[in-house]
Amino acid sequence: MSEVLFEVTDDNLESGLRGVPVGYCTTSRVDPDKGLHYRGKSVREFAHLRPEEVIYCIMEGSFDGDSPGFKGFSEGLQKQAKLHPKVKEYICKLPKESHPMKLLQHALTFMATFESTGNYAADCMGVIAKIPEVVAILINYHAGWGETKESNPKLGYIENFCHMLNVPNLKNKEVFIEVMRLFNVLHYDHGGGNLSTFVGKAVASSHEDMYSSLSASMCALEGPLHGKANQVCLAFIKEIYQEVGDLVTGDQMEDLIRKRLQAGKLLYGFGHAVLRKEDTRATLLAEAGEKYFKDHPLVRIALLLRERAPKVLMENPKIKDPYANVDLMSGAILAACGFPYPEYFTVLFGLARVIGIARQIVYERCEARGGKGTPIIRPKYLYKAA
Ligand code: MLT
Has this prediction a pTM greater than 0.85? Predict the structure, then answer.
């Protein structure tokens, strides 16, 4: 007999499916107290690894440094990196007035036309191999940074992305690549129920192809309550900086937070639907902030907020998670490493997250229920007269 995991009551309705189990996720898990785990291990254990190694683990289930399949996997990614020229051509015809996330959504639908094999597993590898070039093209195009350099996948997954991206006036290329690597590795996957992942799996449940399903995921990621939170958070940190400047102390920051909350203003970058301790990704980014940029004004503000806000938020018993989430730190670190362009932050999130979503789609379409796959998503809504 199957176990009763959850009882649906009136209170669960219209509550964003919070806590309602709907399936299995094999790639990652978000523990309320211990944070994000990829394939059973804390994300902290992956924070120093190369993207290819972490991606291999998410794809295959484990990585121990010399996993026999890793070499072939990594070479496979390099071989498949070449993007269909039409995808580039059409990206560069899109309106520059659009938010870059719109360009990413369109780019994925062009990929559905020119790259799709109709096989979820093959397209999962295909999108992982090609997405760095897609994102480099769309940012260069949107920002007016000139022609994208020819892809050279042999440089390494994130090194090649940074090589293609024509970021102007980069002072320290090595630190830039290191921050991009860390940001990328920390954003691959976040359990099965985050909105973009859930949406991608829902769309694929109608047997829609991989690339179009990922395009739908990127629409969900664009929302300010999900992936665009990193862009919103940097605007918030800048606003605080304008208000207090460089010389603010911890106690002054605490006062400012309290006054802000009393005035009914929001505090961005704190709390999470599942987490009840500080987001491990925020901790890792804060450590990078302390290591590389502790004197950068925006990083300093983010670090002070991270230190002082939880105490003030805890004064409100209704707040279940008063701790920093990934978005508090990520924008400040990206700005400090030479990428002060918030409108591209969510696209960088998407560059990473398509990996976890694509792998979860492969699970649901090809592996779940003994290989039969999950049925089309069709939840029940109760009729209520308006
Ligand atoms: C994520 O990384 O997807 C966000 O933290 C949101 C979530 O997990 O719901």
Answer: yes
